[in-house]
Amino acid sequence: MQELLTVMRRLRGPGGCPWDQEQTHESLRPYLLEEAAEAADAVAQGPQALADELGDVLLQVAFHSVIAEGEGTFSYPEVERGIVEKLIRRHPHVFGKTQVSGSEEVVSNWQAIKAAERGGQPRSAADRVPAALGALAREAKTQKLAGRAKTGRAELTAALNAAPDSESGVAEVLAAAVAWARSLGVDPEIALRAHTAQTLATLPDETA
Fold first, then answer.
1. Are 143 and 178 in contact (CB under 8 A)?
2. Tens-digit pLDDT profile for residues 102-124
3. pLDDT for 47
4. Is the pLDDT of residue 191 over 70?
5. How far apart are CA 15 and CA 196, in angstroms?
6. Can you spell out the DSSP letters for 6-51?
């Protein structure tokens, strides 16, 4: 990681790359989202593809860290130390004396520790569902928070038949499709991304 940080400092420093020097946390947001999405896609493409894409995700971590370093707001060691301390704090069954019966209790403890870190202050639903998530993923997380039932094919068909031919009607059907996916244990965002990738693979290359 230190070598990557050194390269980024060179790119951002005097005599470096004009494009890299112009970037800000805000301007890099689309790239951070894109690289994370490409890394998620690479899971299905094999270990080498995943390793390559994780490198691009790591680049984003280094890029933001070097920008912050220059602004005097935070540095990479703070980023690394923060996540290490968080992992240790949220795994008392590994690094402490807490006993757990299984993964469900691990998740329950994790949520309790997160709440304690906030001083017991509640978070709004909007804060718990990142706006940058894909629309299907965001709907799935929202349904889970809202306690919406996982419905089946019959409910999806009913929603399709009842929905008006409009933007709101399409949204209702998509929400019903997400609930159907949840009932099957399928991640709708990943499923649609895989389907789209398969379709793209069948399309002809662009001619010059």
1. yes
2. 999 999 998 899 889 888 777 78
3. 96
4. yes
5. 42
6. HHHHHHHSTTS-HHHHH--TTTTHHHHHHHHHHHHHHGGG-HHHHH
Tell me how far apart the alpha carbons of residues 80 and 141 are, in angstroms, rounded to a whole number: 28
- Distance, C-alpha 92 to centroid of its chain: 25
Task: Read off the tokens for 179.
Answer: 């609930």
Q: What value, to the nearest 5°, has the Cα angle with vertex 87 and ends 85 and 91?
A: 120
Residue 154 structure tokens: 């019959």
Q: Write down all domains in the chain, each with its CATH number in brackets.
A: 2-89 (1.10.287.1080), 126-202 (1.10.287.1080)
If you average pLDDT over every residue of the chain, what do you get? 92
What is the tens place of the pLDDT at every residue in 142-187?
A: 999 888 888 889 999 999 999 999 999 999 999 999 999 999 999 9
Torsion of CA 194, 195, 198, 199, to 10 degrees: -140
- Whose tokens are 């704090």? That residue is 89
| C-beta of residue 132 within 8 angstroms of C-beta of residue 33 | yes
